[in-house]
Write a structure and sequence with these properties.
Blueprint (H helix, E strand, L loop, with lengths): L3 E4 L5 E5 L3 H4 L5 H14 L59 H17 L3 E4 L9 H11 L5 E5 L4 H7 L5 E5 L5 H6 L2 E5 H11 L2
Parallel strand pairs: 1-3, 3-6, 4-5, 4-6
Antiparallel strand pairs: 1-2
Amino acid sequence: MEALKIVNLNNEPVGELTLEESVFGYPLKRHLIYEAVNAFRTAGRAGTRQTKTRAEVSGSGRKLWKQKKTGRARVGSIRSSLWRHGGTVFGPHPQDYQSFLPKRMRRNAIRSVLSSKRRGNRLRIVENLDLPSPKTKEMNKLLETLGLAGKVLFVDREVGRNLELAARNLQRVAVARASALSVVDLLHHDTLVLTRSAAQILAEIFAP
């Protein structure tokens, strides 16, 4: 695989890095990406909708009038679903929407997106992301220096405090740890910026 240029925070070349072919040269598999995104989103559903059945609504359980010879329809409880303020029949209840996705499928989906970023020239490698101060202007300066536009995802081995604070006020910028990268994060951002150490971690985690 062709080596990528490594730059510092001043956008000056400081070396080259040959990426792992099995991770950054994986073919595009849209069905895997779809399955991974679907599993991620369903796992995030709260599933806390709840309606009360006739056993849960307030009200007495006594029989309101005798069964026969009243001229009215028979009724057993004021909590009947036929009555106002009665229980709900077949209403929604808390449930788990999480779907099972095999570990290999999830990893291959991330490899597919990483490879797509590389092939589309939307992957940058920097030496480090050690910002001098936790200010938004430092992040804006970095984006301008590196010539980054659109939504940008910065990935490091460990997210530094200065990097986290400098990026949190910018809607189009996000940061993530290499070991906690998700397919949704990758798809949501136009450009992926990896540190040298983050690229090595990804190669270790997602190598087959």
